[in-house]
Design a protein that fits this description.
Elements (H helix, E strand, L loop, with lengths): L4 H10 L12 H6 L2 E4 L5 E4 L6 H52 L11 H22 L7 H56 L13 E7 L3 E5 L9 E5 L10 E5 L6 E8 L2 H6 L3 E10 L4 E3 L2 E5 L5 E6 L4 E7 L20 E5 L2 E7 L6 E7 L6 E10 L5 E5 L2 E9 L2 E9 L4 E10 L5 E7 L4 E6 L2 E11 L50 E2 L1
Length: 526
């Protein structure tokens, strides 16, 4: 009889258990009665003397078959255990690697409570239970326990599904949370960096004094404040309004100048001595002009400046008497709607005032339609200096000046504008910005800045609205001598135009009458 030593040893130990009616023989006596030897190949050979009984031999064969089956199952289970051990070892290795990676990336962050060896073992055990239940069901189940087996299989399936959902949801939540934390950390770092840069040169201070330029440029614009509808009605969608743009105005008057319904002709305007008078429509003066073109008006030192109708001439009117005191051509400027703002026709020549003086925006054929900025002598309307920008004027929706810096706008939608461009006439440098400006209706007309209250006054499709401007406050060094507030700094233009030095052929000692227009030049309405 040839056999493996382990198999033979197991056989000898189990032999007494399967011989009913036979004298019980101690295992040691039985082994001692066995003669054994081992050949050159290492095969164990033994001879066992058993009683000559067919029943005993049948039981022995049955025992051997059972033993082989048990050993086969044992080896199968041992193989599965080894496989599980390898899987768990791989899972542990991956978990450890992921843990090191996350700790290196974000110290202090812990792994999911479901990514650990004990949890992986539980998952494997549930998978084994599922397979066992499926095998039992496939083999016909257990007699008298089919309902119990069915319930057990459902419970195992539900437990496995719950486990999988926990793993998936936990991992997704963890990764989503990690991404959100990364984004927030990046934003926080960016904010801290910007704050450090800002604090290095700027600090929060008191509100700007009227007419002051002690700031670092425009920072933001408030939401629009709707004052009222213009006094001529909703049909008069184009026009301009505001306050005196001089840094130290001689009066606190408000002016409103709606254009005719055609959006071009400027013929009437009103003056109000106070904001309350404007809102309540009382104590006003109404004047007839009759020769203005477009909504590029502004008021500076109690004089209104505008484009003379159908020409490149600039006009100056004394508001105290509604008298046209001066007109002068703007050299090279186009007119008759050649290079107007986008969606704002008849704005070839646009005036602006700020802390540094009186300005005019326009375009020339030489500039190929790009915006040109000139500083005017407010007494003579002579061009003192000129700057050429890189912005195509018909692509802009408007512009204004503040402390010698040009700010240009463009339309983003029917409800929002963007101040996207700035040109510093002091340094000759241009900058790109992104300051959003909300609007009530689609088109902004006649944008005017007032240095006295640092506000924009805008005519928005018939409505009078204004905006508060916020500037970055500079941290100025202490000095025994202070420059007067609003005093202009020396200009450094990047390119100078050759302004006309020829004054108007007529010397004006009084009102000019019947020039370029047959309509009355002055008139007072009660």
């Amino acid at each position: 009889m040839r056999s493996d030593p382990a198999l033979m040893a197991s056989f000898l130990l189990l032999l007494p258990l399967v011989l009913p009616g036979q004298p019980q023989v101690q295992g040691e006596d039985l082994v001692r009665s066995v003669l054994s030897s081992m050949d050159e190949s290492g095969t164990f050979q033994c001879v066992v003397h058993l009683p000559n009984s067919s029943i005993f031999l049948q039981q022995l064969e049955q025992l051997q078959s059972t033993l082989q089956e048990l050993i086969g199952k044992y080896e199968q289970e041992l193989s599965r255990v080894k496989e599980y051990a390898h899987v768990i070892e791989d899972q542990d290795s991956q978990t450890l690697e992921l843990s090191h990676m996350l700790e290196a990336r974000n110290p202090g962050v812990t792994l999911s409570q479901y990514d650990n060896p004990a949890f992986n073992l539980l998952r494997l055990e549930l998978e084994g239970a599922q397979e066992l239940a499926a095998q039992l069901k496939a083999n016909g189940g257990v007699s008298g326990a089919s309902d119990l087996l069915y319930e057990l299989q459902n419970r195992v399936t539900n437990a496995s599904l719950t486990l999988k959902l926990l793993v998936d949801s936990d991992r997704q939540s963890f990764h989503a949370l990690q991404e959100e934390v990364d984004i927030l950390e990046g934003q926080l770092s960016e904010c801290e960096r910007e704050k450090e840069q800002e604090q290095s040169s700027r600090h929060p201070g008191p509100p700007l004094a009227p007419g002051s330029c002690a700031h670092g440029g425009l920072q933001k614009v408030s939401r629009p404040l709707v004052v009222k509808l213009n006094w001529r009605g909703l049909s008069y969608k184009a026009g301009a309004w505001g306050r005196d743009s001089a840094p130290n105005p001689v009066s606190s008057l408000y002016w409103v100048a709606p254009l005719r319904a055609d959006g071009r002709y400027f013929d009437y305007y009103r003056l109000h001595k106070s904001y309350d008078d404007l809102v309540l429509l009382k104590h006003y003066e109404q004047w007839k002009m009759g020769y203005g073109d477009g909504s590029g008006n502004t008021v500076y030192k109690n004089f209104m400046y505008f484009n003379y109708y159908g020409t490149r001439y600039m006009a100056k009117v004394d508001l105290s008497s509604n008298t046209l005191v001066l007109r002068r051509p703007l050299p090279g400027a186009t007119y008759n709607n050649r290079f107007s703002y986008a969606c704002v026709p008849w704005t070839d020549i646009d005036f602006a005032g700020d802390e540094k003086g009186l300005w005019v925006f326009y375009a020339t054929e030489e500039s190929k339609g790009n915006l040109v900025v000139s500083l005017l002598n407010d007494s003579t309307l002579e061009v003192e200096q000129t700057w050429y920008t890189s912005q195509y004027k018909p692509a802009l929706s408007g512009a204004f000046m503040a402390c010698g810096v040009l700010y240009a706008l463009r339309s983003l939608s029917t409800r929002q504008e963007e101040i996207f461009y700035a040109y510093d006439t002091t340094t000759g440098q241009e900058h790109h910005l992104s300051i959003l400006l909300d609007k009530m209706l689609e088109t902004l007309h006649g944008i005017n800045y007032c240095p006295w209250d640092h506000r924009l006054y805008v005519y928005n499709d018939g409505f009078l609205i204004n905006y508060d401007l916020t500037f970055l406050t500079l941290k100025l060094p202490s000095s025994p001598m202070k420059r007067p507030s609003g005093a202009p700094a020396p200009f450094k233009p990047i390119k100078s135009n050759q302004p006309s030095r020829i004054r108007d052929s007529m010397t004006h000692q009084g009102p000019i009458r019947n020039m370029f227009s047959p309509s009355p030049l002055e008139g007072r309405f009660p």
